[in-house]
């Protein structure tokens, strides 16, 4: 698989990463099976994927434990990214950016991951009660201590409701400018997909201009862009899509033209090419510093996603994506 650089030149990863969150968190709990998830991670590594993206809050903690079982056997094959800064309660999630907590959380993540160094340590969410420079400074100390190789900033949850356009990530960019004065940012993780392209307006160009890697989260639109979901089928109560404004039966039906367009493009590249692979290839085409991180818990999809690294979209394909209708949500 093609390698792409995350920040500093020494941080090279496979062009398509693996989001491990669905294995333990946020998606249909009844379908989360440890052994199947382990096979998915091994299959991704076999296909050339190296970036494994997890977080201490996924589970909480169980996702890091699962990834740690793989790292114990195949540490040299993997580039491990985990996150800090969010605590999970009974019915809520709260930020914690206190320096002492960050250092304790890192040690705990290292134990769960069964490794002596984290390749990319990301701030999951800035704590509004703690200056972000203090949190970032504690993370920088972990780099100097040899426990972490590089730092990343997660901009998930920063989109601010229905707003769109270049101002969408203004607050995130201001935070990034502040932490850059403390220690270099190697990667930023934010949503980017065919149906959520907002990061193209300002956040991705900001990263590109500074040699910062961009990890594209949810590049398959929470599974919608795979074309495998049926409108009206419904989701389990613990599945985040059960409350997502684009996943009501009506909105899934209304957004089918997006899938139809991806299918049309896939058919031009071969009978075995899927809409999901076209969606990932579109993300890859947004710049050599962009690494899509599709999440899955199934071996089959992990292999298919990795194979998208070899798909090159034509100018006609890219033009057609630009002409696809925008995604609709229940607010529309």
Structure commentary:
The chain is α/β, with parallel strands linked by helices and 332 residues long. The chain has 11 helices and 12 strands. It has an 8-stranded parallel beta sheet. A two-stranded antiparallel ribbon has the order 1-2. The radius of gyration is 19 Å and the shape is globular.
How are the SSEs ordered, and which strands pair?
Blueprint: E1 3-5, E2 12-14, E3 18-19, H1 34-46, E4 51-53, H2 62-74, E5 79-84, E6 86-88, E7 93-95, H3 99-113, E8 118-123, H4 132-144, E9 148-154, H5 170-180, E10 187-191, H6 203-209, E11 213-217, H7 249-254, H8 256-269, H9 275-284, E12 290-293, H10 299-307, H11 315-323
Parallel strand pairs: 3-4, 4-5, 5-8, 8-9, 9-10, 10-11, 11-12
Antiparallel strand pairs: 1-2, 6-7
Task: Sum this structure up briefly.
The protein has 332 residues and is an alpha/beta fold. The chain has helices spanning 34-46, 62-74, 99-113, 132-144, 170-180, 203-209, 249-254, 256-269, 275-284, 299-307, 315-323; strands spanning 3-5, 12-14, 18-19, 51-53, 79-84, 86-88, 93-95, 118-123, 148-154, 187-191, 213-217, 290-293.
């Amino acid at each position: 698989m093609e390698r792409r650089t995350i920040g500093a030149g020494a941080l090279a990863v496979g062009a398509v990463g693996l989001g491990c969150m669905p294995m333990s968190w946020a998606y249909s709990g009844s379908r989360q099976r440890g052994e199947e998830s382990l096979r998915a991670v091994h299959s991704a590594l076999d296909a050339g994927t190296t970036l494994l993206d997890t977080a201490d809050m996924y589970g909480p903690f169980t996702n890091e434990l699962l990834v740690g079982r793989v790292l114990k056997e195949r540490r040299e094959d993997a580039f491990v990214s985990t996150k800090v800064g969010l605590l999970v309660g009974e019915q809520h999630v709260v930020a914690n950016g206190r320096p002492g907590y960050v250092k304790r959380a890192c040690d705990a993540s290292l134990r769960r991951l069964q490794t002596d160094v984290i390749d990319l340590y990301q701030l999951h969410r800035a704590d509004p009660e703690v200056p972000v420079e203090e949190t970032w400074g504690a993370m920088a100390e972990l780099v100097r201590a040899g426990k972490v190789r590089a730092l990343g900033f997660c901009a998930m949850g920063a989109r601010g409701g229905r707003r769109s356009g270049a101002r969408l990530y203004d607050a995130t960019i201001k935070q990034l400018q502040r932490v850059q004065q403390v220690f270099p940012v190697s990667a930023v993780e934010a949503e980017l997909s065919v149906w959520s392209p907002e990061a193209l307006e300002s956040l991705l160009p900001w990263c590109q201009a500074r040699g910062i890697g961009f990890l594209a989260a949810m590049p398959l639109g929470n599974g919608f862009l795979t074309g495998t979901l049926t409108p009206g089928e419904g989701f389990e109560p613990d599945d985040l899509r059960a409350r997502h404004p684009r996943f009501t039966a009506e909105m899934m039906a209304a957004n089918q033209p997006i899938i139809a367009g991806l299918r049309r493009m896939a058919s031009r590249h071969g009978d075995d090419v899927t809409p999901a692979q076209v969606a990932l290839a579109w993300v890859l085409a947004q710049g050599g510093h962009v690494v899509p991180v599709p999440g899955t818990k199934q071996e089959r999809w992990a292999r298919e996603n990795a194979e998208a690294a070899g798909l090159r979209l034509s100018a006609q394909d890219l033009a057609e994506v630009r002409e696809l209708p925008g995604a609709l949500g229940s607010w529309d």
